Amino acid sequence: MDTLLTADVATNSRRFRRKSSTFVDAIHEMPETGELAPAQLYSTESGRLFHSGRIVIATVGLPARGKTHLSVALARYLRWLGVKTRVFHLGDYRREHVGDGKDVPEDYFFVNASASTVLLRQKILKKCRDEIYQFLNHENGQIAIYDAVNPLSEGRRSLAKEFSKHEVETLFIESACDDEKIIEENVRSVKISSPDYIGWSLDAAVKHYLARMSAKIPHFETMEEPDLNYIKMINAGERITVNNCSFGYLSHRIVFYLLNLHIKSRHTYFARAGTSREEDSYKTDASLSEQGKDYAKKMSETLIRHREGERQALVGRGGPDNPSKMLTIWTSTRKRTIETGHFLEEKGYRVRQRSQLSQLNPGVCEKKSERRIRLEYPDEVAKHEADPYHHRYPRAESYHDLAVRLEPVILELEREQNDLLIIAHESVLRVLYGYLMACNAIDIPNLQFPRNEIIEIIPASYNNEATRIKIPGLPEKLVPSSPEDIRIPVPPSGSVTPMGLDTPKTGTSSPRNGLSTTSGPGEGKQLLVERALRD
Could you tell me whether strands 230-234 and 239-243 are parallel, antiparallel, or unpaired per DSSP bridges? Predict the structure, then answer.
């Protein structure tokens, strides 16, 4: 594999976008102009939806209370709906100006800082505010999320007054926490997730972060202003207080989403269902074949082994010697997905069926070959090749239909506090992966999930990361994913791919990004129907 050549292909791709200071997940990259979001129901000339104007969401809270996680999660959901949203982390502007945490003035995080440090903070703050105005005024942005501490009541009122001069509504979201376990978990995750502590030892990072927290605690004022719009989340969603002065529809959607959100760490796993006895039939609800049962057992054993390995690795790094977090399994209501989860259910894991997780409906194309579809539906084929995400064949579903159908599942996924394994058809996994990794709609039909891999999504404050866990000992004919497009060589883990996503890191897995691209209108055509009818 020629890595340099692949990097050149990636850089020259029309889908390539410059990466921000955080990688892997595309949540910090803005979609290209004109692209529709995966669950967007309509578009407007201004680019703003739901009859709402421009809104700045300003976070409030002490360090290690989950403000950044909340900001990123909210941006992910709003952009999924098609609301043009961007997160402005004040810490990113500081790092851009003065470098990583070791180069910051010692009194930077203290209220009684020196005059030179105060001047530096004001300069950084101005740069951040200028970019917020640029986004809202000149890039048709609708929601800017300003991720900062915002500790003082006077400062928050001043902030709301400043934005109102520009006809921008301000909504404050405070993340308050007095649960020491949650705070400790958030502090320890800093070593992994914050760019400030790259290269630091765990103990040094925790000590420095605790000092930052201590500097702000005596001066912090919780949200109680009756004249401001605010939402206060207490202990990771245990309680929520809303002060509604002038909420519109979009603000109420945000409240609804936050009612389902928590900031506790949770891993999400994706696995294909085993093969069934009638692979080409959508309507026939067939049971697993013998090979499908063998796959289900090996997949389950691999996941159990991987989770125990992760637990032991955490203990080896100085973490607590606690049991692994509880694991919940979701399947669709189809027999092959339910039966794929039987092995784990027999081990005592909780398994739930969700009807929304059923695969994409192929409509009139069921059990028809590609050649026959081209002959019988040439006009539909042309429409599909022009827009494989939104097009639907007669009496079929599109990926967009599937994304809208899955919204209740996405909200429950955000609410789930246990680790979660989703066993489903590849079409469903594409859409859910697209949500968690902030994929563009045009990329989702090309995501690939070979059956010999479990996908693990690892949440962190700034972004999600994906790893692939290899399932050993499977026959080669069970491995290919679908649709089987032409693939370009894949760069090593950590390099930018043509889809604007990083390649998933490898645990016990191979460094593949699981994405495919086409070189031109006649190359690498996606199969005309969801050929994962073969599950």
Answer: antiparallel
Angle at 261 between CA 259 and CA 266, to 5 degrees: 155
| Beta-strand pair 327-331/268-272 | unpaired
Is the backbone peptide bond immediately before 483 cis, with ω within 30 degrees of 0? yes
Question: What's the DSSP call for residue 438?
Answer: T
Amino acid at 445: P
By the 8 A CB rule, do 120 and 98 touch? yes
What string of DSSP letters covers 64-80?
TSSHHHHHHHHHHHHHH
> Other C-beta atoms within 10 Å of 381: how many?
18
| Cα 66 from chain centroid (whole Å) | 16
Single pTM value for the model: 0.81
Query: Facing residues of 242 across strands?
Result: 231
**Which tens digit of pLDDT belongs to each residue from 175-207?**
998 877 777 777 776 555 677 777 777 777 777
Show the tokens assigned to 526. Answer: 């996606």
- As a whole number of angstroms, the distance between CA 535 and CA 450 comes to 11
Q: Which two tokens stand for residue 431?
A: 């859409």
The answer to whether the CB of 58 falls within 8 A of the CB of 148 is yes
Say what percent of the chain tops pLDDT 90: 44
Residues assigned a catalytic role: 147
Residues 6+ apart with CB under 8 A from 345: 329, 351
Residue type, 22: T
Record the tokens describing residue 511, joined without a space. 């460094």
Q: Contact at 8 Å (CB) between 288 and 340?
A: yes
* Rounded CA separation 112/383 (Å): 63
Tokens of 158: 């001043």
Distance separating alpha carbons of residues 182 and 260, to the nearest angstrom: 17
